[in-house]
Protein: LysR family hydrogen peroxide-inducible transcriptional activator
Amino acid sequence: MTSYLPTLKQLQYLVALEEHGHFGKAADACFVTQSTLSAGLRELETLLGVVLVERTRRVVRFTPLGNKVVAKAHRILREAEELADLVRSSGKPLSGDLRMSVIPTIAPFLLPRLLPGLRREQPELKLFLREEVSGAAVESLHHGQVDCVLLALPFPAGDVEHELLFSDPLYVAFPKDDPRDPPEKVAPELIDESRLLLLEDGHCLKDHALAACNRPELRASAMMFGTSLHTLVQMVDNRLGLTLLPQIAIDAGILNNTDVVARPLLAEHAARDIAIIWRRNSPRAEEFRMLADILRRGHAEGKCAG
Structure:
C-alpha cells in the first residue's frame, strides 16, 4: 500500500496560518498567493483524510487534531532546518545565510556600531535581522524561524545554549535640575514609584529594571506605557517622570539634544547581560560562538574608541 507523506511546503503553510491566524497574512509570510496557500492546505487535508482548519468568513480556527498536527509540524520543520544547518556547518563557517532576532532595547543601539566590523571580518556572511520582543524572539528560535537571538539575560529561554557578550549597566534618567537628582549614583530607595516610567509588558528590560531595584511596590505603581526607550526619554524630557536606561542606549546618544541626565543605579544587580542564544545541540554552535567573539571584540573596541 502506497503511503503519501506531507511535503515541507504544506507544513510551512500550515504553520504560517497558525502563526498569523489569517490566510492573506500567512500567504504573504510564505511569499505565495492566498489561493496557492489555500490549495496547499486543502491538499494536505485530503492527503491526511482529516479537517485541520475550520474556515469561516471572519475566523480561522484549528480543530483539536489540527492543533496537534501543527505542533508536530513545528518540530518537523525545525528538524529540517537543523539538517540544512548540519550541511552548512561542514563548509566555511560564518558564510551564507544566518537569521538572527534582536530585541528592540538592543537593536538600534548596538547593531549600527557592530555590524560594519562584522561585514569586514565575514564578508560572505548574509545576516538577516528580525526585531522582536524577547518572548516572540525565543518562540521564533524554537520554531526554527531564526537561527539565533541577541537578547538580554536573565530571561526564560528554554532549552538553549548561550554566549555572554558583555554586561550592560542600568542608569536612572531624570529631567535636568530635578531636585531629587543625586550627584553620583542613585540608590533604589530614592526612586519615586509614582514618577517611574517603564516599557510596556513584553520588554524584558522592564523586568530587569524592576529586579535590580528589588522594590515590589514599584511593579504595582510604575506607569508602564512606553513603547520604546526613545519614547520614554521624550517623556522624561517633558518632565513627566523618570525612567531606567541601559548603558548601550546612553552610549549610542539617546540623551543627545535633551535636558535629561542619567546616573548609575546603585544596586547589587544593576545590569543586564547581553548574550547570543541558540537551540541546544545546533550543528552551527561553533559558528555562533565565533559570531559572539566577533561581536564581543567589536563592543570592547567601540568602548575603547569612545
Q: What stands out?
A: The longest strand covers residues 160-175. The two ends are 70 Å apart (CA to CA).
